[in-house]
């Protein structure tokens, strides 16, 4: 069994809080009925001749709420009814297969709804309910221990030096600064921090705030873990509110492409959907700002954006229409950089970062073990002459034992072997060629990227 398979076997995620209960009235929904009405119109425009069960599946609410709105839409002549012709109009089976479509007036109404907001999906949860759920799922409510972190870093060489500092840092909930030479594994480790947590969280598809629907659930950043939740039949006793998705804790990473507008609710004329900012998507999880110092905006501007959220655990979001909302800021922030921290942030901000964790090259034993494991993974035979050549090159060029090197240089070695159509043996000649191709002529070991 591989390390990753063992990790999956041991890591049994359980929800940190009770599942959100299915709401059965508009008062419990805490969302204006007009919002649900517009969503039904947009769904009927996208999925013509849908029945109530299909609408319930798309909207994530119980059928009798949809029935109430459909009855009102029929009175307004916005929808048309299509009865099944092969059954009695009065049978229960016929009623369940009644299909609805937009009338000409209904299509006009749906077009207006799309122009205002192109969101189509489950009914949003209210901002109040969202805020309460995020605060209840605070990862600091269930502290981790040394075995949790050791398991999370089970595939990280040199982890024995990181476990004692990462564990307390995660439990604190405070921001982290991961710094050190490029290629020392900062991003690799940051991606595994959440593996130490044994709880899952509920993430809403969207949130209704200040008269707008903000899309929160992201296929890119959220990993659902409850496939049974997507079943069409809703049981009030055995299912929870389908407007929520049970997920692994979010793990959001962004690097040099980060811009300031990604940290605010984003709305453009092109897509007309209000998209949650990265920190809202990362709530109850981790947000990693990788390659700090390489973003297009000044570092001071970026860091100043986080002063209030990190200090008070809430964030003020400015909406494109000029309104402002407040949401919890309940996540672990990790800044990663290969630059000198003293050169990218002033002392006042550095003090707000609770933990500064330096990443260093591996010791020789761990470094050679990493080479051996990766060569086996790539079905390459690493000959003793190659290891002798490798250590000699490190000594000659004064290159540290960076954990990025085995993967990169073995990859080049594999490419050379395939091109030359020779046996999959990495000898000193192959290794020297790969080394020379990896480093530029003037680097002399001063950088590995």
From TrEMBL:
| Gene source species | Vibrio superstes NBRC 103154
The AAA+ ATPase domain extends over: 172-364
Cited Gene3D superfamilies:
P-loop containing nucleotide triphosphate hydrolases (3.40.50.300)
Q: What is this protein called?
A: AAA+ ATPase domain-containing protein
Query: SMART domains given for it?
Result: AAA
Q: Which domain of life is it from?
A: Bacteria
């Amino acid at each position: 069994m591989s390390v990753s398979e063992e990790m999956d076997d041991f890591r049994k995620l359980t929800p940190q809080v009770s599942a959100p209960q299915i709401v059965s009235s508009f008062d419990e929904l805490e969302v204006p009925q007009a919002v649900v009405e517009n969503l039904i119109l947009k769904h009927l425009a996208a999925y013509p001749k849908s029945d109530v069960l299909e609408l319930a599946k798309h909207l994530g609410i119980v059928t009798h709420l949809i029935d109430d709105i459909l009855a009102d839409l029929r009175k307004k002549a916005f929808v048309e009814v299509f009865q099944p012709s092969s059954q009695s109009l009065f049978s229960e089976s016929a009623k369940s297969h009644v299909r609805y479509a937009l009338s000409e007036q209904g299509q006009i109404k749906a077009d207006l709804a799309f122009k205002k907001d192109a969101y189509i999906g489950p009914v949003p949860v209210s901002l109040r309910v969202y805020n309460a759920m995020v605060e209840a799922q605070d990862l600091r409510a269930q502290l981790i221990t040394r075995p949790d972190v050791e398991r999370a870093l089970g595939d990280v060489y040199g982890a024995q030096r990181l476990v004692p500092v990462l564990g307390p840092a995660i439990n604190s909930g405070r921001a982290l600064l991961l710094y050190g030479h490029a290629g020392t594994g900062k991003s690799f480790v940051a991606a595994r921090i959440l593996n130490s947590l044994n709880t899952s969280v509920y993430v809403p598809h969207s949130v209704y705030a200040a008269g707008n629907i903000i899309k929160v659930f992201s296929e890119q950043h959220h990993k659902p873990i409850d496939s049974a939740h997507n079943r069409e039949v809703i049981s009030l006793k055995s299912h929870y509110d389908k407007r929520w998705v049970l997920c692994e804790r979010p793990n959001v990473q962004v690097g040099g492409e980060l811009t300031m507008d990604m940290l605010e609710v984003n709305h453009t004329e092109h897509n007309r959907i209000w998209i949650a900012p990265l920190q809202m998507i990362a709530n109850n999880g981790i947000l990693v700002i990788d390659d700090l110092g390489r973003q297009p905006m000044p570092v001071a501007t970026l860091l100043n954006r986080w002063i209030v959220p990190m200090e008070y655990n809430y964030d003020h979001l400015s909406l494109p229409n000029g309104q402002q909302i407040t949401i919890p800021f309940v996540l672990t922030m990790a800044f990663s950089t290969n630059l000198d921290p003293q050169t990218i942030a002033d002392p006042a901000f550095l003090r707000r970062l609770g933990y500064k964790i330096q990443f260093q090259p591996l010791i020789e034993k761990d470094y050679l073990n990493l080479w051996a494991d990766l060569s086996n993974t790539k079905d390459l035979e690493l000959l003793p002459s190659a290891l002798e050549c490798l250590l000699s090159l490190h000594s000659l060029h004064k290159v540290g034992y960076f954990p990025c090197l085995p993967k990169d240089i073995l990859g080049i070695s594999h490419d050379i072997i395939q091109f030359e159509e020779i046996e999959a043996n990495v000898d000193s000649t192959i290794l020297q060629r790969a080394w020379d191709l990896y480093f530029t002529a003037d680097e002399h070991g001063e950088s590995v990227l």
